[in-house]
Each structure stands twice: as structure tokens, then as C-alpha cells.
Amino acid sequence: MHEQQGASVRELMAENAALRRQLASLIDQAESNHAIMMRHQAFDLDIVGAASFQELVATIFRQLPIVSSLDIVTLSLVDAGADIYTVMHKLDVDFEALPNLLFHEHAEELGFDLEPGRPPRPRLLPYHPVSHGMAFPQPPAGLASVALVPLIRNRRVIGSLNLGSRDPGRFTPLLGTDFVEHMGSIIAICLENVISNEMLKYIGLTDALTGVYNRRYMDRRLAEEIARARRQSYRIACMYIDVDHFKQVNDSHGHQAGDDVLREVAARIKAELRMSDALGRFGGEEFVVLLIDADLDSAGIVAQRIRASVADQPFLLPEGKGLPVTVSIGVAALDDFERSHTVEEVAQELVAQADGALYEAKQNGRNQVVAA
Ligand SMILES: Nc1nc2c(ncn2[C@@H]2O[C@H](COP(=O)(O)OP(=O)(O)OP(=O)(O)O)[C@@H](O)[C@H]2O)c(=O)[nH]1
Questions:
Q1: How many beta carbons lie within 10 A of that of residue 45, not counting itself?
Q2: Catalytic site residue 3?
Q3: I need a labelling partner for 12 at 20 to 30 A (CA). Which of 29, 282, 320, 325 fits?
Q4: Catalytic residue among 198, 225, 272, 285
Q5: ipTM of the complex
Q6: pLDDT digits 0-9 by tens, 321-336
Q7: Residue located nearest, by CA, to atom 21 of ligand 1
Q8: Residues near ligand 1 (Cβ within 6 A)
Q9: What would be the CATH architecture of the domain defined by 215-371?
Q10: Structure pTM?
Q11: CATH, domain 49-204, list 3.90.950.10, 3.50.50.60, 3.30.565.10, 3.30.450.40
């Protein structure tokens, strides 16, 4: 009788201990889930709060692998005509710092089932180097399973979030997709937002006719560059460029031909500049160039190259005739930073000096460069 009681007490105690272990493991699991959820919430807040394209994409690449325990995250964007890439490049996005950001001309390249009227679903599957080469051009060693999550806005696929793991069981076709779909939808909204904001910023800073910067941008950039040049002691130079007798182009060949000439002049100026230089249209047929780390002599050499590249090759009119075009250029450089003046005053003075030199070039007969 005692023995029987003793046995059932031991059984009860064992059962009790097993239940406690189970409970402890459930509590651990719940705590770990809670921690994961908190990390995801913090991640969501960070990406929603990203103020620029660069910040958003860098945050995704930096945080998502940690938050979601992934071995690689890449992002493919649909960018027909490379509009997004071009604008981001002009806004100084550092693409070298974002090697996992990929651009595609068409949504079809992303590998989703694009049937009309049915939004594509995430694809969770074993990694295959050939079929997934586009999404993972630089896969980590041992990549075993991947999730390709379509980024959708207004029923349009704008890209794909590509997640990769060395764990073959991490992404399999039988797993639920709610979680990655949720993540994809937040990332899609954030991306669409920052891209529209950056596009607006870009439109506000560029000249619609020629695509070069506008006066507002140039004024700001000049002040920034002068402040930086003061701190780091390098020289900056400025060119004021004006198309000669431009009124005659409009009067003889029409406003449309005039517009074409302005576009071509902008393109020829640009072709002679370095990436770090900035070209802006100041209005009408006037352009201003800001040259970084250039003294008066080297700016004069660049100006002569620009003058020659416009004068040496006639512009092509729509009817096939050649139109000779020339420009006059005034050049000025800043080597004394006049620290008692504000950067804005120094900027104005620099542009005024270049403008004065341009006036001289016009007086001397045009198609020439004058240094202040
Ligand atoms: N097609 C076109 N013409 C413009 C634009 N903006 C200004 N213009 C024209 O540019 C011409 C500028 O003429 P002017 O300032 O008299 O100078 P110019 O004929 O170039 O003569 P110089 O500068 O003295 O060599 C005017 O006829 C303006 O109407 C534009 O966006 N497109």
C-alpha cells in the first residue's frame, strides 16, 4: 500500500517537473518572441522615420539581417529608364556603400508570377545559384534558402526584398508568408515615400529644360562649398557662361530651336567638367559652373575647352542644317577667403567677378574667355 502511494507520488512529482520544464520553455519562447517583436517594432519605426533614400536603404541593410537573423538581405528596385538611379546619383547617394541595392529595368526580371489582376506572392524556396543569381549577385557561402518578397504599391510591383539564410529550413514553400508580406508592405510604403520626396527635392533643384541645376541649388551649393573650402583650404573657381547672340537663334530659327541649342550647350559644358564640379542654369542663356579645387589658371583651361567644344562643332538644326554657336566665358577664382565676410557675401562676390569678366569677354568681341 505504502509502496503504491510512493510510486504515484514519484509519478506526480516527475509529471510536475516535466510540466515546470515545459512551462519554463514556453516562457522562454514567449520572452524570445517578445524580444523579436520589439526588435521588429524598433526596425519599423527606424525605417518609417528615415529621412532620405540613402538612410532608408542603409537602415534596411544594416538592421534587417540582425533583427531577422538573416545571412543576407538585398533589395531589387524596378527602375525603367534609370530615372531613380539618375536622380539619386545627382542627389549624391553613395551607391558604393550600398552594394546590395540592385536596379532592374522591368518588373518581369524579378521572377514573380505577374498575372494581371492577381498580386504576386512571396516565394520561399531553396537557394539556387542560377535562378537566384539576379537577387543575390554576391551570395554568402552556404546560402541555403531564400525568400523573394514582392514590393507592391498601387497594384504595381516596385521591387523585391530578397532575404537569404544558411538554414535550409528557414524559408520553405510550406511556410506561411504573412510575416514577410507585412515586412514587404512596410518597406514598399517607405521606399515609395522617400523616392517621391527625393524626386520632389530634385525637381526643386534642377532646371526643367536642360536638366542641370537651377539657380536656387547653385546659390546653396556655392555657400556650402565656400564654407568647406575655408575649412579645408582648397581653392574654388567659378565660370559665368553666356551664349552669344542667342536672341538671333530664337528670332531666326524659332523658340524650339533655341531650346534645343540651350540643351546642347548644357551637355557640351557638362562633358568638359569633373564629377565634383557643379553646373547650373542661371536663367535665359546663362550658365554658371562651380569648380572645386581649381585655381584661376586651371579654371581658364577648362573654360577654353568649353568654348572650343561649343564653337568647333556646329549645332544640328531639326531640318539638318548646321548652326554655328559660340559662348563667352568669364572666370574668377577664390584664393583669399575673406574670413571677415559671410560665405553668402563671398559667394556673391565670386559670381559678380565672373560676371564682370564675362562682360569684358562680350565687349572684346565674344567667343572668348576672360579671367578676372
Ligand atoms: N529658346 C529660349 N530662349 C530663351 C530662354 N530664356 C531666355 N531666352 C531668350 O534668350 C535671349 C537672350 O538675349 P539677350 O540677353 O539679348 O542676349 P544675346 O542675344 O544672347 O546677346 P549677347 O549675350 O549680347 O551675345 C532672349 O531672346 C530671350 O528671349 C529659353 O528658355 N528658351
A1: 9
A2: no
A3: 29
A4: 285
A5: 0.92
A6: 899 999 999 999 987 7
A7: 245
A8: 209, 242-247, 250, 255, 258-259, 262, 284-285, 362, 366
A9: 2-Layer Sandwich (3.30)
A10: 0.69
A11: 3.30.450.40
